[in-house]
Amino acid sequence: MNDYGKPVRELLKENGCERLRLGRGDHEVWRSPHAPNPFTVPVKIKSRHTANGILKDAGLAKAF
Predict the structure, then answer these.
(1) Closest-CA residue to 50 (of 21, 58, 14)
(2) Which residue, of 15, 24, 41, 48, is most buried by count of CB atoms within 10 Å of its CB?
(3) What is the structure's pLDDT at 2?
(4) Residue 24: what pLDDT?
(5) Sign of the CA dihedral 46, 49, 52, 58?
(6) Half-sphere exposure in the Cβ direction for 28 (13 Å, CA)
(7) Which residue intervals of 1-64 are DSSP H helices?
(8) 3-state DSSP call for residue 50?
(9) Which residues pair with residue 59 across a beta bridge?
């Protein structure tokens, strides 16, 4: 199974996003300069649809 966690985080960092804090369970809270609200990112991302949804929340284009 694929794990999209690391590639998603790398894309977020490359586009100026920053991790604010740890969230509940295995989630992190991130902030993007391209989006008005903070968003959550799970540590393990198994679905490309979830990975693309996170990028959408960050105001970025699909990558997977």
Answers:
(1) 58
(2) 41
(3) 83
(4) 84
(5) negative
(6) 17
(7) 5-14, 48-57
(8) helix
(9) none
Q: What is the DSSP letter of 26?
A: T
| Length of the chain, in residues | 64
Give the single-character DSSP code of 29.
Answer: E
The total of other beta-carbon atoms located within 10 Å of residue 54's CB is 22
Instruction: Name the DSSP class of 45.
Output: -
- Confirm if 9 and 41 have CB atoms less than 8 A apart: yes
How big is the CA angle at 38 (ends 14 and 60), to the nearest 5 degrees? 40
Note the CATH number of domain 5-57: 3.30.920.30
